[in-house]
Amino acid sequence: MAVKNTTQVLIDGKIVTLSGYESPEYLQQVASYMNQKISELSQLQGYNRMSVDTKHTLLSLNVADDYFKAKEQAEMLEEDMEAKDSESYGLRSELAETKVRLESLKGELEQARKESEEGQEQIRKAGEEELERTRREHEEELMRIRKEQEDRIGQIRNEQEQESERVLKEHADELEQIRREHEAELERLLKEHKDDLERLQKEKEELSSQLAEANEELEELLK
Q1: Do 189 and 88 touch, CB atoms closer than 8 A?
Q2: CB 20 within 8 A of CB 4
Q3: What are the boundaries of the region Disordered (predicted)?
Q4: How far, in Å, CA of 209 to CA of 102, rounded?
Q5: In angstroms, how far is CA 212 from the centroid of its own chain?
Q6: 82-100 confidence digits (pLDDT tens)
């Protein structure tokens, strides 16, 4: 069972006691975020002349705006990861088919060797020449297939890294928490299966729940 934590934080110059199942560090981050939003709003013209209720409403609107923007970016990031996972799944299927083809080629080579050994000297020599030609062709085909697969894997990794970097740079403040939780999953995306996506979905839902709880606690504090 999770332990409920109670932490004193400083919000808008006032000491406030926050409680929740999150870590004290997380509650401090929530307080820091609130102070930042209050500081931003205080720069607005006429803010100091507003009533307390109006200030609270304006603060709640800004927090809600940040939440929905972060939620939208999280959903976009998840869609990007699902697309990359689908593409990498197809690549793994191609690799599996290639392995089957290679095993088949090995069997053909072995059969060619046996037939060459069982034949007469002239046939054996002709078979060796044909075998060598076939071997070279198979090796060239194998090298070509491996190069194509390596190039494709490299391209997917580069595209994924570039897209992840672009999203994180554009929304660094809103997605910092999400980036820390999903960085390992992004790096291992090509090697993991759909179970990882389900785990990512669960983490996203937990994050949304934490944000919702934080907003509820904030509303309680501001009442």
Answers
A1: yes
A2: yes
A3: 109-141, 202-223
A4: 49
A5: 22
A6: 999 888 788 788 888 888 8
Structure-block tokens of residue 163: 């897209």
Query: Which residues lie closer than 8 Å to 209 by C-beta, 6 or more apart?
Result: none
CA distance 13 to 26: 19
Length of the chain (residues): 223
Output the six-digit token pair for 186.
């992004």
Q: How many CB atoms lie within 10 A of CB 171?
A: 19
Report the C-alpha gap between 21 and 105 in whole angstroms.
59
65, two tokens: 């705006």
pTM over 0.70: no
Confidence of residue 115 (pLDDT cuts 50, 70, 90): confident
- The alpha carbon of residue 84 and the mean position of all alpha carbons in its chain are separated, in whole angstroms, by 9
Dihedral sign computed on CA atoms, order 80, 83, 87, 89: positive
Residue that the structure tokens 């088919």 belong to: 97
Domain ranges of the chain: 75-222
Helix, strand, coil percentages (3-state) for the chain, rounded to 5, are 85, 5, 10
CA 27 remoteness from chain centre: 25
Torsion sign (Cα): 80, 164, 74, 169:
negative
